[in-house]
Amino acid sequence: MAYKPVILIVDDDFMNLTMAQTILEMKIQAEYLTADSGQACLKILQERQGKVDLILLDIAMPGMDGIQTLSLIRQRPNWKNISVIFLTAAADKNTIVRAAQLKVKDYVKKPFTPEELISRVEKHIAPDIDDPEIQDIFKALDNLGL
After folding, report:
1. Which one of 5, 10, 14, 145 is CB 3.0 to 4.6 Å from 35, fit for a cystine?
2. pLDDT value at position 88?
């Protein structure tokens, strides 16, 4: 049986949560988990002992926002290397700087297209390719926004 990546989607808006999961399920074979708050995200990580491959994390949530949640994730040794993509409607410069300091892997701006969400997630759950020539091609495509 092939390994299925584990993707945790965290958003306080049920419609956004459902839409992201539905879009991803159409193209990406994975185990999907959902949480409606930063606290629920941390609880899932605790229960799974950090065994999550990718977190899609909303920034603007009541209570504990995405930045606070990611800050707590990065403090735990067995969670600190989990890939995180921020889902955001808008982010000010301070938020972007703080996210970079917390080693966020990517951003997906809301509203997102299905193609954009799928391509960003695939990029971060696919195994690394060691061939420098292929890496250069991927970097060029990223720079072109493709």
Report:
1. 10
2. 86
